[in-house]
UniProtKB/TrEMBL annotation:
One of its GO terms (biological process) is proteolysis. Residues 1-23 form the signal peptide. GO terms for molecular function: serine-type endopeptidase activity. It holds the Pfam family Peptidase_S9. It comes from the Bacteria. The keyword Signal applies. This is Peptidase S9 family protein. Keywords: Hydrolase, Protease, Serine protease, Signal. Residues 445-655 form the Peptidase S9 prolyl oligopeptidase catalytic domain.
Length: 664
């Protein structure tokens, strides 16, 4: 059920009481509210049929993501053919996509059973309405039956099979609702018990080849994790020493011999600090750590080992582009690979016989699809070809990577999408799209909304990776932590300066768009640069760090305190009061569009409603959109379609102008 708007917070009431009579009169104007199924929209005009028709083909693009190999050599993929992403099976290159699941909710965390086991199927996660309290289910490919594995109440994630399929590990909040423990299930009996209950957020990473030990890791923040190993017979947990005392880790796998381990970390190399996360091998017999990506000055994002123990594959993120590497094991010699199209490489995995390597590949001009490399033949074969809504893909725009100087002289990277065939002397409007996280990275992946803005509306799009983004080293990642939060907002100010220097860009027509932390950045930019931004779209954004930390789900509160600061600290609380957009709502003078999911466990819907009320209280126009069946973002096609159409109408009315829209 949709609740009525909550009472304003004290800070909001104080702002409202201080309003002049004219603003209070404007705030009293009736809100035009529409209920349509699970959607509530406020002050959003009817969407013209012409806009819906032009946008429809872009809305009907889709991608396919690799999720694993089945025992018979088929691949499991996640893709959408109706409302939500479901599991499909493909058994030959460009073969039929056999849909296996048909749920109204999207699937999460697909994990195939190991080919070395007697199991034939996969595990998947599914929540309700975007609440992220995933339940894990087993889908049996032989019987086509589905079985619930978890308790139906807690938040369960990160499924992992032992090599023989006898045991199954996962993360769960079942013990106390706050800590994320590691549980292990006897898969035949379905009996499960917690094996790591140390407090915090723990994940299982790999079973030893004989199934007696389990590699685990405690995640504290993007720059701090603690790996260890559990003896499953005794329950004893032994943490590994961390070089330098504190480091980020990504992935831990047992070497084929069951003694050594492969892992990714940014620990020092030869006693010198390491900016990037490198792939390493530790041999416990000699104590030697070999840095396998020593000569690559970029992060290693993921890696995979073949079941036969002969090959290791890993992906580096080099200025936003994925580079694939394959090594022999145990020699660690580079394996020659066929040419791979430029793009962003996603999940990867070896076939059961170890002779093929599958991976997802996405680019700015092509949705995600699955490719397979034959290692011996050194050939690359495309296994899926996702639809692009009948559009001419040759007209999709690839971005240019630009860099601009910020207030402290630091170079900030951004992807610049330019409309084609702009008449000489014409300045085009600009949308700045800001990623969430904040410990995330904007990548040049396929985005139908950006392609529509550029090709159909003649809008340039800039996608910056402001300080605090991942992918550019440990120092860059930490530049926005705690009291330095506003420095990332100042990076947007520097981008506005850069826009003003470009002869083809209209500095008088700049909009900002972002979700989650990116939504905070939108609101903060509107308050800090009120005369330089013409309109803003905030999706599931933070409007006050204090209320956000108070109301976010308990299992993630400490994780966010590690990044944003602790609201219980009076000094940090004072910083939050100073920088939070809610307390500066009186400075927002541009039209605002706020969109939210009612079930959002990360950024509660109250964050949206309090900023909507505060900005309206200042007499400024606000469009507000709330979906009762969504959480942190919009994963159902009908909802996302409506939101995107409303956003395009918002830009048309408040950024481009009717004359500009008609000219297109």
């Amino acid at each position: 059920m949709i609740r009525p708007l909550p009472l304003a917070l004290t800070t909001t009431l104080a702002l409202a009481c201080a309003l002049p009579a004219q603003a209070q009169s404007a705030a009293a104007a009736p809100v035009q509210r529409e209920h349509a199924g699970n959607r509530i929209s406020e002050n959003i005009p009817p969407i013209p049929a012409e806009l819906l028709e032009r946008l429809d083909r872009y809305q009907n693009t889709r991608g396919a993501s690799f999720a694993g190999w089945t025992r018979e050599g088929c691949i499991l993929i996640g893709t959408r053919f109706a409302e939500t992403v479901q599991a499909h099976r493909v058994c030959q290159p460009l073969g039929m996509r056999e849909q296996l699941t048909y749920y109204p909710e999207p699937l999460d965390a697909l994990e195939t059973a190991p080919a070395t086991s007697r199991l034939d199927g996969f595990v998947f996660g599914k929540d309700v309405g975007g609440n992220e309290f995933w339940q894990l289910h087993w889908f049996d490919l032989g019987s086509r039956e589905t079985v619930l594995l978890t308790d139906g109440k807690a938040r369960n994630s990160s499924p992992l099979f032992s090599r023989d399929g006898a045991r199954f590990a996962f993360s769960s909040t079942a013990r106390n609702g706050t800590d994320t423990d590691v549980w292990v299930m006897d898969f035949a009996s379905r009996r499960a018990k917690p094996v790591v209950t140390e407090g915090g957020q723990w994940t299982a990473l790999d079973f030893s080849p004989d199934g007696t030990r389990l590699l685990v890791s405690k995640y504290v923040s993007a720059s701090e994790s603690y790996p260890g190993v559990v003896d499953l017979a005794t329950g004893a947990l032994r943490l590994f020493p961390v070089e330098g005392g504190k480091a980020a880790f990504e992935g831990f796998r047992f070497a084929p011999d069951g003694r050594g381990v492969y892992f990714v970390s940014d620990e020092p190399v030869d006693g010198k600090p390491s900016e990037f996360r490198r792939l390493r091998h530790h041999d416990p017999a000699s104590g030697r750590v070999t840095v396998l990506s020593r000569d690559i000055p970029w992060d290693v994002e993921r890696f995979a080992l073949s079941d036969d123990g002969r090959h290791l594959a890993f992906v580096t993120n080099e200025d936003g582009i994925g580079k694939l590497h394959v090594l022999t094991v145990p020699e660690h010699r580079a394996v020659p690979l066929p040419a791979i199209p430029l793009g962003v490489i996603g999940e990867l995995g070896f076939s059961p016989d170890g002779r093929r390597l599958a991976f997802s590949l996405n680019s700015a001009t092509s949705p995600s699809d699955v490719y397979v490399i034959e290692l011996d033949a050194r050939t690359l074969t495309r296994w899926t070809r996702s639809e692009v809504g009948g559009l001419d893909a040759s007209k999709f725009v690839s971005p240019t990577l630009i860099r601009y100087r910020s207030f402290d002289g630091r170079s900030i990277p951004a992807f610049h999408y330019r409309p084609a065939q702009v008449p000489a002397g014409k300045k085009v409007p600009v949308v700045i799209q800001i990623h969430g996280g904040p410990e995330a990275q904007a990548l040049p992946t396929f985005n139908p909304t950006i392609q529509y803005l550029v090709n159909e509306m003649g809008v340039a799009v800039l996608v910056p990776n402001v300080r605090g983004s991942s992918g550019y080293g440990k120092t860059y990642l930490g530049l926005d932590n705690g009291a330095r939060r506003e420095d990332s907002v100042r990076d947007i100010g520097a981008l506005l300066d850069w826009i003003a220097d470009q002869p083809e860009l209209d500095a008088g027509r700049v909009g900002v768009y972002g979700g989650s932390y990116g939504g905070y950045m939108v609101l903060a930019s509107l308050t800090r640069f009120p005369d330089r931004i013409k309109a803003g779209v905030d999706i599931v954004g933070i409007s006050h760090f204090g209320t956000f930390l108070k109301n976010t789900e308990s299992y993630r509160r400490d994780l966010r305190r590690a990044e944003y600061g602790d609201e219980r600290d009076p000094t940090m609380a004072a910083v939050f009061e100073r920088i939070s957009p809610l307390n500066n709502a009186g400075r927002i003078r541009a039209p605002l569009f706020v969109a939210q999911g009612r079930n959002d466990p990360r950024v509660p819907y109250t964050e949206a409603e309090q900023i909507v009320k505060a900005v309206r209280g200042n007499g400024q126009p606000v469009w507000y959109l709330l979906f009762a069946d969504e959480g942190h973002g919009f994963r159902k096609k009908r909802n996302n379609d409506y939101f995107t159409a409303a956003t395009m109408l918002f830009w048309q009315q408040h950024l481009i102008g009717e004359a500009g829209a008609a000219a297109r």
